[in-house]
């Protein structure tokens, strides 16, 4: 029998950007833990496919909206709460990567990556937290990154968004903690997904990741599930403003 501190069955969870990759794996984990799960993304057919994939594990709903657009977010969260129920858990996971030397990085790309990785967490977080703080409880997990701490050439804008997301997490903790809402971050290391596809396919880079990671391998999306379940559970009721790195040890070693 599992410890009651880790019991999150019956909770309702929204995971943004969960039509594939890390978001879908986290949504599956939350559904397996007994949560009612709401999948989000922009593409309705991809969302329907993702929902069908994990339907056997629990109660799954979908809500298509663009997390970078304020009015769509406000309407999306209101509609989810009306149709599915009050949100207990929000995972701000939607994100993107754009790799280019900083000298060549275009203005439009800068704004796009900032909107997708950072502004989205503010917009969705604020909208969900308005309701959670009224109710006096809630858990928010922002998906940060190894690159909230360290960077390599060609991904400065991405690292800037993830570093800022770490501080937004601490700021949300400061503002919403007094109202019973715990906000934490989860920082994945190198995980095999569509986003990292070009790196996984590069034998030299892939070998570097394996050498550089104490665990000696790329991460799998399932590796991240335990951390999110913990941060969403009563076991983390006094944990707030922290970033839990799940990176096979990479941020700890030179
Ligand atoms: P992914 O495979 O590219 O999936 C991204 C998801 O976000 C998709 O479901 C996508 O669906 C959705 N999305 C993108 N823009 C959106 C928008 N404006 N509105 C709503 N949904 C949107 O990425 P991933 O590798 O799973 O990464 C997920 C998160 O983990 C990101 O925040 C990423 O930065 C972070 N992360 C990943 C790694 C890694 O190694 N993979 C490491 C550290 C951190 P649609 O395109 O259909 O909207």
UniProtKB/TrEMBL annotation:
One of its GO terms (molecular function) is glucose 1-dehydrogenase [NAD(P)+] activity. The keyword Oxidoreductase applies. Keywords: Oxidoreductase. Gene3D superfamilies: NAD(P)-binding Rossmann-like Domain (3.40.50.720). Pfam families: adh_short_C2. SMART domains: PKS_KR. Its EC number is 1.1.1.47. Residues 11-179 form the Ketoreductase domain. PROSITE patterns: ADH_SHORT. The keyword Protein transport does not apply. Coiled coil: none annotated. PANTHER family: 5-KETO-D-GLUCONATE 5-REDUCTASE, OXIDOREDUCTASE. Belongs to the short-chain dehydrogenases/reductases (SDR) family. NCBIfam families: PRK07231.1. This is Glucose 1-dehydrogenase. It comes from Streptomyces sporangiiformans.
């Amino acid at each position: 029998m599992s410890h009651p501190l880790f019991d999150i069955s019956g909770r309702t969870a929204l995971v943004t950007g969960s039509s594939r990759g890390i978001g879908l794996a986290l949504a599956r984990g939350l559904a397996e833990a007994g949560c009612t799960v709401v999948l989000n993304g922009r593409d309705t057919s991809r969302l329907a496919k993702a929902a069908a994939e994990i339907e056997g594990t629990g109660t799954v709903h979908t809500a298509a909206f663009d997390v970078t657009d304020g009015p769509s977010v406000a309407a999306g969260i209101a509609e989810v709460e009306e149709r599915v129920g009050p949100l207990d858990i929000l995972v701000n996971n939607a994100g993107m990567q754009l790799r280019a030397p900083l000298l060549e990085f275009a203005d439009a790309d800068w704004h796009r990556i900032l909107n997708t990785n950072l502004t989205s967490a503010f917009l969705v977080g604020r909208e969900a937290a308005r309701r959670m703080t009224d109710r006096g409880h809630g858990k928010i997990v922002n998906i940060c990154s190894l690159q909230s701490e360290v960077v390599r050439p060609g991904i400065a804008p991405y690292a800037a968004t993830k570093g800022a997301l770490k501080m937004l997490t601490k700021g949300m903790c400061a503002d919403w903690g007094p109202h019973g809402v715990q906000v934490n971050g989860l920082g994945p290391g190198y995980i095999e997904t569509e986003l990292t596809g070009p790196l996984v396919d590069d034998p030299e880079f892939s070998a570097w990741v394996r050498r550089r990671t104490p665990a000696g391998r790329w991460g799998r999306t399932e590796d991240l599930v335990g951390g999110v379940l913990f941060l969403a559970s009563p076991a983390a009721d006094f944990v707030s403003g922290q970033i839990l790195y799940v990176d096979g040890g990479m941020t700890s070693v030179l």
